[in-house]
Amino acid sequence: MTADDKATGILKAAWLIAIITIFSKLIGFVRDVVIANYYGTSLVSDAYFYAYQIPALSIILLGGVGGPFHSATVAIFSKLIPSLKDKPTDELNKLYSTFMTTTIIFFTVLAVLCYFFAPQIMGVIASGGNPELIQLAAEHLKIMSPVLVIGGIVGIYYGLLVTYRYFMLPNVSPIIMSIVIIAMVMTSGGNDKGGFTLALATTIGAILQWVVQFPKIRQLGYRLKPNLDIVNNRNFTNICELLFPAILSSTVGQIHIYVDMFFASSLREGAWTAIGYANRVFQFPVGILVTAFLVPLFPIFSRLVMEKDYEGIKNYFNKGVGVLFFGAIPIIIGIIVLGLDGVGLVFERGAFDSKATFMVTEALWFLSVSILPYVFRDSITRVYYSFNDSKTPFVVAFTSIILKVFLNILFINILGMSIGGITLSTSLVTLFNAVVLGVLINKKINLNYGELFKNLLKMITAGGITLVVCAGMGLLMDKFTPDMPKVIYQIIKICVIGTLCLGIYTTLNLALKMDYAKELYNRLMSRFTK
């Protein structure tokens, strides 16, 4: 297969994954709207989101698409599978069983500990909160503790499916949890005063997420035959050498969240819920970008490392990150100019009032500045994993814990920035991680960022001009638009400024002779011509 064929295949996979991810995140948005409608930003919602951070470590961070279990599976199995069309060998199946057995044992122990020590765990995490919040969060954690076991299993499934080029199922399966939560919460009809139905729905949704993937794994030829063949097992050792530092790195990332939870628990009621919704809004467009391009690219990176085709890695990395940068800048502009209207349009109903809308938007504004370093950090991390190096990302993430605590103290306790201080510190820590990882990768491969950052400067210039024009248009619309229903005005404003943003941004990039803009323009025109 030629380089052009590979690039075309990656682009097609990226479009497919983008479409699936958009649909998945739209359903997730509906889920969040339903939760916001019934629980608002209240003590109950705070308790649920505090408790959910523990199982989220497993089902999203460790076991999700792009998580350590997914990444380790892709990095190792993609090098061992002789042919994607054949059934796995006995040796490969044994490795799968060993990996699965140790994963189930590890997460089962973790789930049992979380169940029996839930009050103590939530007491530490939300130590600034009142006793009622801590007690309610502990009950939620007990209900959701089985989710911990599911996360690792699903992560291995994701990795195998992506390795075999089945991109759809791993990206569709998270929809199931959202649908279950929507159905059960709406069925409760607002009578779930303690949020227990919400917690139970999360657990049932996670179990079904595993169930729908199981048949495909069996179809590929993988059978679980429990064993602990871990002594002198070189392939399993390779998995562990990649997996354990990656787990620690993700856990460190979760420690950052726990630090934020600690500081948020001392703020006004609903603060942690508002930060959670801001993260969900942030992840909607950014998650689509990162997932669409990095999921198909990661197996390519791993194979190129095995083939020692470093020039290929450099080309794929710089082009992939350049496309991510190109798509990220309009997202930042949209959040800054339309954040308040967008959050209000999506969430402001039922128990979610205008005060809650501003709380979420405040957090979102400060979080938006992290988009560029976020996509770079996630991209460069995949290159480290391709070299079987998850230690460096772990060390970098670990050292940033101190920075996170310092910035939270500075912004919240000293400068009194409240919710915005927490998300601003998150953005600065993301920038720190991206810069350090970008510098240290030169020990393995020279990625030659010159052209990438030259293009980024052009994109930022175009974005800055676009931001000024769009912000001015927003102020004019707010001042001169005649009286009309708020929802209608918000829709009109978002459509008008969104269209203006894309038009100006693309035009300016074309004028600056940006390759990404020209390629996008040519592809769109070719489709219209056809």
What does this structure look like?
By secondary structure, this protein is mainly α. It has 2 domains: 446 residues, no CATH class; 82 residues, no CATH class. The protein has 20 helices and no strands.
Query: What is the helix/strand order?
Result: HHHHHHHHHHHHHHHHHHHH
* Radius of gyration over all CA atoms, rounded: 23 Å
Residues in helices, as a percent range: over 70%
| Major beta-sheet overview | none
* Count of all domains: 2
Query: How many strand units?
Result: 0
Cα distance spanning the termini: 26 Å
Arithmetic mean of pLDDT: 84
By secondary-structure content and strand pairing, the structural class works out as: mainly alpha
Which spans of ≥5 residues are poorly predicted at pLDDT below 50? 1-8
Provide a brief overview of the structure.
With 530 residues, the protein is mostly helical.
Question: Which short descriptors sum up this protein?
Answer:
530 residues; disordered N terminus; mainly alpha
Task: Please describe the topology of this protein.
Layout: H1 3-39, H2 43-62, H3 68-80, H4 90-116, H5 118-125, H6 131-144, H7 147-163, H8 168-172, H9 174-188, H10 196-220, H11 234-264, H12 271-306, H13 310-347, H14 354-368, H15 371-386, H16 391-414, H17 419-440, H18 450-480, H19 486-511, H20 515-529
